[in-house]
Fold 22alpha-hydroxysteroid 23-monooxygenase.
Amino acid sequence: MDISSSLLLLSFFLFVIIIFIFNKINGLRTSSVSKKKLTDHVSTHSYGPRFPQGSLGWPILGETIEFVSSAYSDYPESFMDKRQLMYGRVFKSHIFGTATIVSTDAEVNKAVLQSDSTAFVPFYPKTVRELMGKSSILLINGSLHRRFHGLVGSFLKSPPLKAQIVRDMHKFLSESMDLWSEDQPVLLQDVSKNVAFKVLAKALISVEKGEELEELKEEFEQFIRGLMSLPINLPGTQLHRSLQAKKKMVKQVEKIIGDKVRRAKNKEEDGAVAKDVVDVLLKDSSEKLTHNLIANNMIDMMIPGHDSVPVLITLAVKFLSDSPTALHFLTEENMELKSLKEMTGEQLYWNDYLSLPFTQKVITETLRMGNVIIGVMRKAMKDVEIKGYVIPKGWCFLAYLRSVHLDKLHYDSPYKFNPWRWQERDMNTSSFSPFGGGQRLCPGLDLARLEASIFLHHLVTRFRLEPLSRPERN
Ligand code: HEM
C-alpha cells in the first residue's frame, strides 16, 4: 500500500471514530439529560407533554456555527426555517455553548416571558454576566428586581423626562444637521448613536457635556467591546480591559452620586423633583439600593439602551427609502405638523410626536421587520410544560422573536414593509413583542419610540429624502 492510500484509509478510520464519538456524546446528552428528566418528571405517553425534537449538533460547538453563519447569509432565516420545517415551531438545539430549547411560537414565547423567576431566570453568555455583575437589573430577580424595574420604568415614561428629551434632541440634532452638506455622506447610524448616547447619559446620570461626557463615552466604548469577547479575564485580554473600563465608569458615577447626596444635605438644590434615574433610586427608602449597586446599574442600563435606538432609526430610514409611498405619507404628516406649529407659534411637545399616526405605524412596522432585538434568553429553574412541550430544568430557552414577527401565520406578506397593516391591527398580541414582555418588559420602550419619532421628524422636515430608484413591490 502506498503512502496516499494509507493516508486515505487513516482519514476514513478517523472520520468513522469521530462520527462514533459524536453520536455517542449526542445520544448520551439526549438520553441522559433530557430523556432522564422526562421520565423523572413527566409522563411520556404519546398524547402527553413532549420533549422538543431537534439536534444538538457537534460536540462542544453544537449548532452555533450554522446559527451564526446563517445570520450573515442572504437568507438569515434559514437556520430557524429549516428546523421549523423538520421539527415544528419549538425544537431543541445547542447554541453558544448551551443546550437550548428554541421557540418560534408566539404563545410559547409569551408564556415564558410572562412567567416569574421560580420558573425562568434571565440567561446571558458568561462574558456578559461577568461584565454586568450579580446585582445588575438584567440579572437580578424577585422583589428587588420588581422594585428597581418599577422605579426606572416610571421615570423613563414620565412627562417631564419626555419634555426634556424633546428639547435636548432638538438641540443635538440641529447642531449636527447644520453641518450636513450635499457633497459629504452622512452616516445616519453614527449620528443617531451620538445623539442617543447623550440622551441616555443625561436621563440616567445627568452627564451632558464636556470632558466628563467624552470620558464616559470613551470608557463605555471600551466596556461594550468586551460583550463579544472570550470569557478570559487576564491582563491583556479584551474582557480585562472592559472590566477596567467599567470600574472607572462606576467610580465616575459614584462620585456623581456622592455630590448629589452632599448637595441634598446642604439643601443646595431642590431635591423634590427627580432629574435623572439616579435621583429616583436615591429617593428609594429601601437600603438594598446601595450607591455601588446604583452606579453599576447605570452602566448596565446603557447596554440595552445605547445601540438599539440608533439601529431602529437607521432601519426606519432604510425601509422608507425603499418605499416611496410610505416616505411620502410620513413626510406630509410631519410637514403639516411643523407648519401648524409655526402658524400658531407653539412649541412641539412630546405627545405631538407620539400622536402622529402614520409615523407611529412606520416605527411599529420597523420594529416588526427590523427586529432590533432578535430574541431573549432564559434558563429553566424547574421542568416547565407549555402548550404540550416540556422545557427541562437547567436548559436554556431562546424566545426567538424575529421568526414570530416574520411568520406568514401572523402577517400577510411578512417581508413587505407595510405600515398600513397596523391600521386595523392590535399591537398588544403575542405575535408582536419587540420589547419583550412580562416582568422584564423593556422599561425604555416609550423613550425608544419618542427618540425615533423626533429623529424622523427633523430628518424629513429639514431634508428632502430621495427614495432609492428600485421599484416598490406589492
Ligand atoms: C428599539 C429600542 C429597544 C428595543 C427593541 C429594546 C428591547 C428590549 C427587550 C426585548 C428587552 C427584554 C429583555 C429580556 O426579556 O430579557 C429589553 C429590556 C431592557 N431594556 Fe430595552 N429595548 C430598546 C431600548 C431601550 C432603551 C432606550 C433603554 C433605556 C435605558 C432600554 C433599557 C432596557 C432595560 C434596562 C432592560 C432590562 C429590563 C429587565 O431585565 O428588567 N431599552 N429591551
